[in-house]
Design goal:
The protein has about 325 residues and is mostly beta strands. The chain folds into 2 domains: about 140 residues, Immunoglobulin-like (Sandwich), CATH 2.60.40; about 160 residues, Sandwich (Immunoglobulin-like). Helices cover about 5% and strands about 55% of the residues. It has 3 helices and 20 strands. The protein starts with 11 loop residues before the first strand and ends with a helix. InterPro entries: Arrestin-like_C, Arrestin-like_N, Arrestin_domain-protein, Ig_E-set. This is 6824_t:CDS:1. One of its GO terms (biological process) is ubiquitin-dependent endocytosis. GO terms for molecular function: protein-macromolecule adaptor activity; ubiquitin protein ligase binding.
């Protein structure tokens, strides 16, 4: 027998104990297909249960997507509706008790993934409305519908990338460095990655006190990148200088470390919406003992959902 599950009670923005939604049997969400790769749909069942029948005219279901930011009015991404039931009684209403009403909406191919942040959000909902005999009287229920977007990263985004210090930096601080990232596209569920760091110090007195690593999110107003930039740190890690490999090499000193950076589950995907540009950036800061010298390594990375990883899992 197929298992039928329903949204969590906390997913309801507005609830009515006579109306509730369910997923298709053996599904754990309303979403089917892979948005960004193929056709994606929102589907399920609306259940109406009135122990005592009520007089109603029609039952309408709305599928709505909204983008909200601090600095602009709400933007409607999608607004579709379907009449799931309409009375056939010539008088314009009839008694109803129990209904089981399947539904389906196609998700626009350019829809953005759902996310929530302090500065902006993209949210999709299903809202069911029963229009009663008395036109001003309605029953309604609204539930959040998470939507995920997938991509097929090109090979160059999945290959290791080595970034190196510039000559002017080497001459000024007498430090050379290179950092090797395992790739530049990271799946939102990959949890962590490690950066291979190598530094050559031409000053024999320099010793590393600590390495601080960050994963930072930057949210920009697409219309004005600078004035409305917001930052959010997804991760901060620290490595003591005692845990870093140090190898003398003549008058130079070579330092080597594997710097781990966590990818938390609440990170925002790298994307552009109507109002926002969301960037994710890796930062590694190397701080030396008894010196004002430090090295800061930054690189924008892509965070999203890799369809190839999903299908292989």
């Amino acid at each position: 027998m197929a298992h039928v599950s329903t949204p969590h009670p906390n997913d309801y923005i507005k609830s009515d104990h006579h109306m509730f939604f369910s997923f298709h049997p053996d599904s754990s969400s309303f979403l089917s297909g892979y948005l960004g790769v193929n056709t994606a749909k929102i589907s399920g069942t609306l259940l109406i249960r009135f122990p005592q029948e009520i007089e109603a005219r029609e039952i309408i279901l709305h599928f709505i997507g909204r983008e909200k930011v601090e600095w602009k009015d709400e933007y409607i991404i999608v607004n579709k509706q379907e009449k799931l039931w309409t009375t056939s009684n010539p008088i314009g209403h009839e008694l109803i008790g129990d209904f089981t009403l399947p539904f389906e909406f196609q998700v626009p191919s350019d829809a953005v993934e759902s996310f929530e942040s302090h500065y902006g959000s993209v949210r999709y909902t299903l809202k069911a409305v029963i229009i009663r005999k008395e036109k001003k009287k309605k029953n309604s229920a609204e539930v959040i519908v998470p939507i995920w977007r997938w991509s097929q990263p090109p090979d160059e985004e999945l290959r290791p990338l080595v970034i190196k210090s510039k000559f002017i930096q080497q001459r000024k601080h007498q430090i050379e460095w290179e950092a090797e990232l395992p790739q530049t596209f990271f799946d939102i569920n990959s949890k962590k990655f490690k950066v291979k760091l190598k530094m050559i110090c031409h000053r024999p007195d320099l010793r590393i006190r600590k390495i601080i690593s960050y994963l930072k999110g930057i949210i920009r107003d697409k219309a004005d990148n600078l004035s409305s930039e917001k930052k959010q740190y997804w991760y901060k890690g620290e490595m003591s200088g005692k845990d870093i490999i140090m190898v003398p090499n003549g008058t130079d000193t070579i330092f080597e470390a594997m710097v781990a950076i966590d990818i938390p589950s609440n990170i925002l995907p790298t994307c552009q919406t109507m109002y926002m540009k969301i960037i994710n950036e890796m930062q590694i800061k190397v701080i030396f003992e008894r010196s004002n010298t430090f090295v800061l390594i930054t690189k924008e990375i892509l965070v999203g959902r890799n369809i190839n990883r999903e299908l292989s899992d």
